[in-house]
Amino acid sequence: MARTREFDEESVLDAAMQLFWEKGYEATSLSDLTARMGIQRPSIYSTFGDKKELFETALRKYTMVHASKVRATLQSCTSVRQAFVNFFEEVVAAKYTGDLNRGCFCINTMVELAPHDERFEILTREHQLYLGVIFQETIERGIQSGELEANTNAKSLAQTLIVTLIGITVMMKSQPQRSFIDNAITATLTLLK
Questions:
Q1: Residue numbers of the chain with a pLDDT score lower than 50
Q2: pTM for the predicted model, two decimal places
Q3: Which residues in 106-136 are b (16+ Cβ under 10 Å) and which e?
Q4: pLDDT at 82
Q5: How far apart, in whole angstroms, are the C-alpha atoms of residue 122 and residue 79?
Q6: What angle do helix axes 178-189 and 154-171 make, rounded to 10 degrees?
Q7: Smallest Cα–Cα separation from 162: which of 192, 190, 127, 186?
Q8: How far, in Å, CA of 81 to CA of 147, rounded?
Q9: What sign results for the dihedral spanned by CA atoms 144, 149, 153, 156?
Q10: Model confidence over 58-95: pLDDT tens digits?
């Protein structure tokens, strides 16, 4: 008879995700994981596989939740321009209002692992492309409503906004002056005309 798990899989996965997000893949040891997750190594291996498989599972969960949150933020306003203003304000506010300087878990993975591991190159690129689709759909909504010019290239503009998002998120790791980031966002959002 199989033993029932004595822990909530989602809770321990959340704990692992938070730890990987804070420290990165390489700096997180199995001892760190067992301490944070509150389970022993055999339970990690039997439930999630090795450390890399656990990291991948945590990253997949993060990207699903993150994409859902981005979509909700961009759909929360009738005005497409205001939706993007709100979105970028949320990204920046998390950094400048005392939240942990973790940045985006997916972008951190893109920087740390994607150059050396094809699996994470693909996973992080897929998330960027999916966010690009969400951005593009939002821009197309603005074109259809007449808020944005009819000749706006929604796909190119969405890709530009994704590059801006990634650049700002990485740059905020070095704690630039808030005005530097705000000016860059303001200039980029002038493209939404």
A1: 1-2
A2: 0.89
A3: bbbbbbbbbeebeebeebbeebbebbbebbb
A4: 96
A5: 33
A6: 180
A7: 127
A8: 8
A9: negative
A10: 999 999 999 999 999 999 999 999 999 999 999 988 77
